[in-house]
Each structure stands twice: as C-alpha cells, then as structure tokens.
Write a structure and sequence with these properties.
Length: about 375
C-alpha cells in the first residue's frame, strides 16, 4: 500500500455494525448481507481501519424513520415476521409490495434500522464537521419508497440522510453509479432545487425499476434538478469514465453543492450476478476518486452488488481511494474467508470481457450532449 500524491488529507469516518451482515433474505435471493462482513474483513486486512475514525453504529429510531416513511408502513415493518406474514389481512402484502424481491425475513426491521442508523450517523459526522468523508457500505438502498419497499430496499437511508443534511446544507448533490436507476431518491426530491439527483444506469424501459430515461428531469421547483444517464449493456471502462467525468465536472461547477452523497452500487461491475456492464474495479473507483477531487464533503454509501467477492474487493479499493491510499493487488493472507477469493488472489481481477458493448460511440456522444444541455439550464 502507498499513499498517492494529494495535499488534501481528508478526515474519514467508517460506519459499520457487524450485526448488519447477519441477516438472510432467503437462499435464492441475490442480496447477501454477508458481503458486508467480507468487505469489513478486507478493509481491516489492508490496515485501513487504523487510519479512519471507526464507529460501531446504532439502530435508527422510529422517529427518525418517520421523517420520510409513513406511520402505516413503519408499523407494518415492525410487526410483520415470517410466522405471521400469511395471517395478515387480505391485501396487506400487495399493498406493501411483499414478494420475491422484498420478502419478509427474520428481524427485517432490525436489519433496516441498522443500515439506516449507520447512514444517519455518517451524515451527522459531516454536519458537525468531524469528518470530511463518511462511509457506510451497508447503506445505499435507493429504491425504497415512502409507503413501501422496492427492489430489495425497505428503508431509504439515502433520502433520510439527505433530509438530515438539508437542515444545514443549502444544496445537496446525489450521484448514483449503481447499475439500477436511483428512483426512490429521485422521486423524493423531484420537486425541489435543493437536491440535484443524477443516476447512471442500464435502461431499456423494462429493466428494473423501469424508470430513468433522459426525459425525467424534475418538475415544479425541481425542473432541471434531476438528470438521468440511460445506458445499454456492456459499457466498458473508458466509455463510462469519460462519460461520467464529462457530466459530473460541469454539474459540480454549475450546481456548486455544499455536500455530495455518492451511491456506489457494485452491480455496475462486470461479472455481477445481476449485472450487464463490463466495468473493472479501477474504473468504478475512478468515478469515486474524481468526485473526491473536488474537496467537497462526501457521504459514501454502498447499494447493489451480487457477486460478494467483487463487492468486497470494490468497496475495499474505494475505502483506500477515499483515504488517499492505493492498495497493493495482493490480498492480505490472514483474513477470515480468504477462500472466497480463490478465483484470483488479487484485488483487481479482470472483469471486462463478458458482454458485448451495445453503447456505440455515436450513442454515447448523443447522450453526453443531451446531458450537457440539461446541465446548462442551471446557469439560466
Ligand atoms: N434483475 C433482477 C432481479 N432479480 C431478482 C430476484 C431474483 C431471485 C430472487 F429470489 C429474488 C429476486 N429481482 C430482480 C429485480 C430487482 C432488482 C433490485 C436491484 C436493487 C439495487 O441493486 O438497485 C439496490 C440494492 N426485480 C425485477 O426485475 C422484478 C421482477 C420484475 C422479476 C424478478 N421477480 C423475482 C420479481 C419481479
Ligand atoms: Ca444508478
Ligand atoms: Zn442495483
């Protein structure tokens, strides 16, 4: 490991409670909270825990969850469990979107309050100036709605953190590089100019959650304060990095946010179990490094990511980047679960050869121009 040149030495806090990795969505379900434990072992195996402020996080309170979610929904989450779920009044499960994507599993409410407590703790460190960068890899559950869960997300920790940051920050920028559209966050702030949301994602009108075309740009006071970057299968490192930088650079300059939340969903990597992009770990990390280079306070959260060994590699690499440390490719040999990495004992396996790149140069150039036209409205 060595430090890379930067005069800016941010104070970084790392928010984690090992308990959050002990919950089970079900054997067939792709969301595996265990990936968070794997990440934590790798982060400390590389010695990164010694250079950050570590906080073992607490559960968010009901009152905190009610800042965004409805009473009715929170009460349901609190009382439902696998033993009583089929005895609920008719229509309850449909009303709360319970099914294969969002199943009822043991201690679901505790799981949701734990990852949310970590994001709220992280936002508090930024608010009181004790951290420049605060990390919660267990957060980033961007699909949850006010009245229901969606896409593996029960409580929207991002929306709740942004509401907290808005108490003192005039302008919040939300950047989402998960494979999926950040619909829950976009919807929550669609009518305000105090939060700018931008999501890069796969889009074809059918792919989950089905929203996020480039014509969704906000409404009312929020018109031109939402940006969507709809992509096709197989995007490669250079195309993604170039597009990301050419959009985020003018966006930060024009919007001038006082705080940034970056959602770092790892399902945009190549070889992800649910994914269809061709990104390598260093390309995904380059997007985090680029945002950090602006020197604006950052809340960094996880999100999707369904191949646990690569999720943990990615978020460890990004923890290094956020601390100005470039990690050596050799994985630490003394970590628990080392056998998970026996495909290649490297932090940077090759992940870029699986999908044909359906994003032509012309398509990407047209998309870039469309996005820059949207950003130009900010100067208006
Ligand atoms: N893609 C995908 C996918 N796979 C599953 C799934 C597979 C097996 C299971 F046992 C349970 C679920 N669901 C989906 C998607 C939801 C993706 C959510 C991504 C979340 C995030 O990464 O952005 C943030 C954490 N759901 C669908 O495509 C909906 C269905 C339309 C098809 C799948 N079935 C299970 C539900 C309905
Ligand atoms: Ca996204
Ligand atoms: Zn996702």
């Amino acid at each position: 490991n060595y430090e890379f040149g930067s005069t800016y030495a941010p104070r970084v806090s790392y928010h984690f409670n090992p308990k959050v990795s002990s919950y089970h969505f079900g054997v067939r379900h792709p969301m595996k909270p265990f990936r968070l434990m794997l990440t934590d072992h790798l982060v400390s195996g590389y010695g990164l825990h010694k250079i950050m402020d570590l906080y073992e996080t607490r559960k968010a309170s009901d009152d905190e969850l009610l800042e965004f979610h409805t009473d009715d929904y929170i009460n349901f989450l609190k009382k439902v469990n696998p033993d009583n779920v089929n005895k609920m009044p008719r229509g309850t499960l449909d009303k709360f979107n319970i099914g294969d994507d969002c199943p009822i599993f043991h201690n679901l409410y505790e799981y949701s309050s734990l990852y949310t407590g970590a994001s709220l703790d992280a936002s508090r460190k930024l608010l009181n100036g004790q951290s420049d960068i605060a990390i919660n890899w267990s957060g980033g559950l961007h699909h949850a709605k006010k009245t229901s869960p969606s896409g593996f997300c029960y409580i929207n920790d991002i929306v709740l953190s942004i509401l907290n940051l808005l108490r003192f920050h005039p302008r919040v920028l939300y950047i989402d590089i998960d494979l999926h559209h950040g619909d829950g966050v976009q919807e929550a702030f669609y009518t305000t100019d105090r939060v700018y949301t931008v999501s890069f994602h796969k889009y074809n009108g059918e792919f989950f959650p089905g929203t996020g075309n480039y014509d969704e740009t906000g409404c009312s006071n929020g018109k031109h304060f939402a940006l969507n970057v709809p992509l096709k299968d197989g995007i490669d490192d250079d195309s993604y990095i170039n597009l990301f930088k050419s959009i985020i650079d003018p966006l930060i300059t024009s919007y001038n946010p006082t705080v940034i939340i970056q959602q770092c969903g790892a399902d945009s990597l190549g070889h992800d179990r649910l994914g269809c992009f061709n990104l390598n770990i260093k390309a995904h990390g380059e997007c985090v490094k680029f945002v950090k280079s602006f020197g604006i306070p950052m809340l960094v959260v996880g999100g999707g990511g369904y191949t646990p060994k690569n999720v943990s590699r990615l978020w460890t690499y990004e923890t290094g980047i956020l601390n100005n440390v470039l990690l050596s490719p050799e994985l630490p040999s003394d970590i628990p679960f080392l056998n998970y990495f026996d495909d290649e004992y490297s932090l940077y396996p090759v992940l870029d050869d699986l999908y044909e790149n359906k994003n032509s140069k012309q398509f990407l150039e047209d998309l870039r121009i469309r996005c820059l036209e949207q950003i130009r409205y900010l100067k208006g």
